[in-house]
Design goal:
single chain, alpha/beta, four-stranded antiparallel sheet, 12 strands
Amino acid sequence: MILEITGLETEREHMLLRDIDWQVKSGENWCVFGPNASGKTALASVMSHYAGKVSGEIRLFGRPYSAGEWKELKKQVILLDPKLCMKILPSMKGTEVICAILEEKTTGSTYRSAVEKRRALDMLKQCSCEHLGDRLWRQMTPREKRMVLLASALTPERRLILMDDMCSDLDPFALKRFLNDLETLVSGQDMPAFILFVRSVNEVIPSVSHVLILKEGRIFSRGKKLDVLNSEILSKLFETSVLCDYNKGTFNVEFLI
């Protein structure tokens, strides 16, 4: 079992979740979807940071989220979020960005040893973007920045990658390229399990096996992706007529307003 959530509830700042019971089994790759303010980012945040005020239980690879366990657990799970891009120094090179993320320190000295740079370059190579190793952060496109973020997650210790709203601010062509790159990466051998948190059904890549739909902080539907992402369920979710088409691994949604 990768992830077990039982009776999860939280209400702090703008985060609101109620009665979340969810399991992610080995071999499954999930996508979390829902309208704005449905709780997607709140769930991603709770799963990636130990929070003592959260009620309910979260277990990762059989181990409970607790103050005693968190030091080791946080090495196995990472949250990738485009907001991280705003915290990175524009003058950093691609290899320096990866080293900084691994150290959980995106500001300060950019000095890196030859060994650190080599490791970072190898991680970029796994994403077929080693050419970004010497490129400055300010010179990268939004898609390239996301590929560097993905590369930073590919450490031997990592067993689960959470990706929240990674497609935001991408133009249609960049979005298509990023989704293709992401699919190629996650469908490879020896890759960690992943959970996508998306705002659009069109962002669900073929390697996603299951979908969890949230609405107003509660679970609205969950199951295998074709059982959940269909016209009937999406019409109920958005309370309007929705046409959902699935063709060759991709979804297309049309609102019949």
